[in-house]
Amino acid sequence: MAGREAFTHAAGAHASIVVKQALFGLPAKVTKQMIPWVTYTDPELAHVGMTKAERDVAYPGDAQRTLEIPFAEVDRARCEDNRVGRIRVVTDRKGRILSADILGQHAGELILPWVLAIEQKIPLSKIASTVVPYPTRSEITKRVAGSYFTPQLFSQRTRKLVSWIQRLLP
């Protein structure tokens, strides 16, 4: 085992690094935070990114922001009458994704966008503006990313701007 993560997919990632570096001389690395894990229980639990302990050391106090949406708010979960679970995404103050946790049906399938976002440093704005099929469980990803911007959208400043624009329009 090359890393501490005893997962088949982690071994594959480490093998890929060896091949890139040894055969092609390409820079490659994988960090522990990029390796997702899934616990195949009912409901499933999936995680990617920093652990709470790692976040608390690197981003103490109010330097973290937690975004959370329950599956009960997603229409597909309602249609299937399986509303158990939630998604939780933790960011730093600037909205950089530190971790994502999903508890619910198909959590292992739903973690992929968060793995990609952390690995490629994709901002929440890109996730929030992505068009997802409706109704699907993956809508929860877009919803939780969009929730980061809710306080800005409904701020006093935004209300004043909208009021000013409405006075200008006929």
Task: Give a brief description.
This protein has 170 residues and is an alpha+beta fold. 43% of the residues lie in helices and 19% in strands. It contains nine helices and five strands.
Strand numbers in spatial order across the main sheet? 1-2-5-4-3
The major β-sheet equals: 5 strands, antiparallel
Mean pLDDT: 86
Under CATH, the topology of the largest domain can be stated as Enolase-like, domain 1
Structural class: alpha+beta
Shape: globular
CATH class of the largest domain: Alpha Beta
Share in β-strands? 15-25%
Percent of residues in helices: 40-55%
Distance, first to last CA: 69 Å
* Name of the CATH superfamily of the largest domain: FAD/NAD-linked reductase, C-terminal dimerisation domain
Radius of gyration: 19 Å
Features of the shown structure:
9 helices, alpha+beta, about 170 residues, Enolase-like, domain 1, 2 domains, single chain, 5 strands
Task: Show the helix and strand layout.
Elements: H1 8-24, E1 37-39, E2 44-49, H2 52-58, E3 64-70, H3 75-79, E4 85-92, E5 97-104, H4 107-110, H5 112-120, H6 124-128, H7 139-147, H8 150-153, H9 156-168
